[in-house]
Amino acid sequence: MIHHKGKIALMLLLPTFAYLIVFIFYPLVDTCLLAFSNPAGPLENFRRIITSGEFWKTLRNTLVITGIVVPLQLILGLALALFVNLRFKGYLFILYIIAIPLALSDVSAALMSYSIFASTGFLNKLLMAWGWIERPLYFFGFRFQDRAFWVIVITEVWRATPLVFIILLAGLQAVNKEYLEAANVFGFSPWQKLWKIVLPILRPSILSALLIRTIFAFQVFGVIWILAGRDIPVLAGEAYYWQTVVYNSNISSAYGLIIAVVTILISWAYITFLKPKSFEEEAV
Amino acid sequence: MMKKTLIFILCLLIVLWFCGPVLLILIAALTPSAEYYDLARLVPTKLTLTHLESLFVRLNGWKATLISIQTALLSIVISFAIGLPAAYVLTRYVFKGKNLFRLTILLTRSFPVIIIGVPLVTLYLRIGIADSVLGVSLAHSSMILPFIIIISSSILGGISVEYEEAGMVFGLTRFRSFLRITLPLALPGFAAAAIYAFVLSWNEVFISAIINLTNRTLPAHILNTAMTSPDYFKFAAGTVMALPAMIFIFFTRKYLMSMWGISLK
């Protein structure tokens, strides 16, 4: 029986391998093939994208949204995790309340924002009821891109902060109470305890939260497509547009490939440059 | 006392910030359209189900909802069928390359699912499952399967292998021993994982919108029609998409930390 073990293990793993090959590996290869195939030469699709002028706007939007949203989520998520970890009476209730957005799709969250910021939405009605404004403020539409941008930022922060919060709260459970008691003996201030003890222990959790949020921020799509359409172009939105509206799979794949490459670069940067010591142990 | 008041105020702010939008869209979905477009009417005087009804009946919402449910259920079945044996191997066998396998699975978690959509469209056309529930389910499994493998192996790892071996001593085969002894113990955890997987599929929009053009899931259907629909339909749609997911998460709240914690590392 014992020498069959290897064979059984292999057999049980086979479906997973088959799935990964057909649904991850093959699409990856095919995306490359599509992205580099054009009668005018292998790089023609990318040349078209880069020279279109739209591209730099698209890339800039994606980068700016990521650059604003991810740090905000980290700060808010950390604050919420530290707060809930005080374990005051009823903290579990607050924990579940904060978890609500975890269940929601980006499309749902975007529509919730829309119910608040629409021209006849709750915000405008409230401001008018208070007499602060005479006529409604507009947040959406081509002329109001700057405002739509901030609505998108707020929505993304609202939607994904709970994810960071949960990871950091899980990480906080690893902070040994005795360290903090020892710190009390040495007369550390709460601020010192946070910087010298809690944050260093939390480092692996912070890194994995940052990594996962940065990767997904680069794929941001639903919220933007609902609230701004192509007025605020982003990489994933362009991939969607070229595939479903223009029916050009090659350009769409090229955008997909750009997202994939950036994702790989981000993961690589986090893992090598920041050299989180315990990250690998925790990941494996 | 000061500290207690401060905690209370902070809790109040948190509840307002996180529940507010959910409550507001629910109210907006139930507000009669005349009152919604009246800027002077902040609080509706009466509530109506007309928008929800027309979303389901006139705007094909029923069909999209059914497709969403079918897709999610089929994704769960596919992911468990493929993932459970792998999870079993990860906890019960020692073999070369085990850590590499685990790492590969973890990496697929952060793999951008966006890029599998376009190639799958042509693949599905060739093998004849274009525009079908099966096609989207298979694609959704790419984000659900890694999660199922990771969470199931952690659930199975928590159940001592000795029970199973005891069963085998008494003459059960390995498979029957797993079925009769380990599986019942693991079932609550698996149920929570399945619910979480349901939410993942229910919420996914990009892949569903790219792969299916007529048999669209609810989010994909909304994404396509939202731009051209009146506002109150958007709110009805947003509510319909939000409620089941919130209810499901509520039932699995005990697993919140372990589920999201594991799925993220």
- The CATH homologous superfamily of the domain at 70-212 and 242-264 in chain B is called MetI-like
CATH-defined fold name of the domain at 70-212 and 242-264 in chain B: MetI-like fold
Distance between the termini of chain A: 29 Å
Alpha-beta classification of chain A? mainly alpha
The chain pair forming the largest interface, with residue counts per chain, is: A-B, 92 and 89 residues
What string gives the helices and strands of chain A in order? HHHHHHHHHHHHH
Number of strands of chain A: 0
The largest sheet of chain B, given as strand count, sense and whether it forms a barrel, is: none
Write the CATH fold name of chain A. Answer: MetI-like fold
Q: Encode the helix/strand succession of chain B as letters.
A: HHHHHHHHHHHHH
| Uncertain residue segments of chain A | 278-284
Specify the overall morphology of chain A. Answer: globular
CATH superfamily name of chain A? MetI-like
Could you say which structural class the secondary elements and strand pairing of chain B correspond to? mainly alpha
Secondary structure tally, helices of chain A: 13
The rough form of chain B would be described as: globular
Can you tell me the number of structural domains of chain A?
1
Question: Helical stretch count of chain B?
Answer: 13
